[in-house]
Amino acid sequence: MEIPIIVYIFDFYKSIAQHMQVILGIIFHFIGGFASGSFYMPFKKVKGWHWETFWLIGGLFSWLIVPPIAACLTVPGFINIISHSSSSTLGYTFLFGLLWGFGGLTYGLGVRYLGMSLGNSIVLGFCSAFGALVPSIYYNIYPVAGKTNLDLLLHTTWGQIVLVGVLVCLLGIFICGRAGTMKERELSSQEKKSAGQKFNVERELAAEQKKESFQQFNLKKGLIVAIFSGIMSACFNFGIEAGKPMAEQAVAEGWNPLFQNNVTYVVLLWGGLTTNFIWCVILNIKNRSFKDYVDSSTPIARNYLFSAIAGTTWYLQFFFYGMGESKLGNGASSWILHMAFIILVANMWGIVLKEWGKVSQKTKNTFLVGLMAILLSVLLVGYGNYLKDKEQSKETVSFVHVIK
To answer: Is the separation of the CB atoms in 247 and 260 below 8 Å?
Structure first.
């Protein structure tokens, strides 16, 4: 008679532990989203360099320098794991990284044309949809044990709530896009030339007057670039799936599962580096901007420092995404949470930088409604995962009854 009580107590604490995994996963995704939504800020401190120059320097830290350092600190055997991985695993992981590189490359242009808040919203909206749903569709066609497929999302209560969360997120993106259209209509032709991004805020002597510099706001160009960037950026999620054998091998060798994806990132980000490196060098040649790297007339040490900080911050989004994914799985939940948090943080910066300061209250309200929809999607996805863990706990209880 005592055994069932002991088992139920064990199951109770197990249930609490499972719910904590969901909470930790959400927290990790928030930190990763904060890093991604904020990484462009240090670039605003760079002066006198062309875009391709500071983007490449930041990228070298994001894709080449920091990833192996992080892997070495968390999965010391990562080199051995990579060297013994199959050519298909390495090839597909690199390929998806290459495609994702186009998304990362054009992301910067999207932010340049649309501003930090709207640019992030459009890019990450498409990235959210493709990255969240395509893997589930793939696993519906090619089932793999332990992977969430589309049937599971469609025919379970928790899966349906997660899908509703995805749809609400996309609705929020659409509303933010609508707000951007309203913003463009309200800006005069003169303001458009300077209403993209608010740059370095400087204090001038005793008056401490704030100065702002902006890049060109262009909705048409920005939308084209942002849509392409969003679709290509979703390939990062596919790359994580392609490199899963390396992550699983890291766990099999006894390394902390929390950091298993750090091995995959090394190969995946090589692909991103390849795309961005080639394009930036082409622009260096076209714009004759190679001199930027050694131009002493610019604050060169400061430029290198802030580019390095931006690149390292960008990598941290991957680092914490991997930690969140280890708690929630690499399904629709993880991806949509990560993207939603990036959008929320980026738009927070957009508000801080007063990107919406010259528009009507109606436009501001439309924008805020879009943000609230995105926040609601985060709550829905989190609740869906809570129900998923609860159902798994019930299965454990049922198993106990069978034994009894």
So the answer is: yes
Can you tell me the distance from the alpha carbon of 397 to that of 402, in angstroms, rounded to the nearest whole number?
Answer: 9
Residue 100 near residue 232, CB atoms below 8 Å: yes
Q: What is the dihedral of CA 201, 204, 208, 212, to 10 degrees?
A: -30
**Position 212: which residue type?**
E
Rounded Cα–Cα distance for residues 210 and 214 (Å)? 13
Question: Tokens in use for 142?
Answer: 């090619």
Indicate the angle between helix axes 361-403 and 157-186, nearest 10 degrees. Answer: 170
String of DSSP letters for 142-176? S--TT---HHHHHHSHHHHHHHHHHHHHHHHHHHH
3-state DSSP call for residue 21? helix
Tokens describing residue 213: 């510099």
Q: How many Å apart are CA 290 and CA 286, to the nearest integer?
A: 10
List Cβ neighbours of 224 (8 Å cut-off, separation of 6 or more).
Answer: none
CB atoms within 10 A of CB 141: 8
Nearest residue to 276 via CA among 61, 65, 55: 55
Specify the pTM: 0.70
- pLDDT tens, residue by residue, 18-46: 567 778 888 888 898 888 878 888 998 99
In this structure, the number of other CB atoms found within 10 A of the CB of residue 354 comes to 12
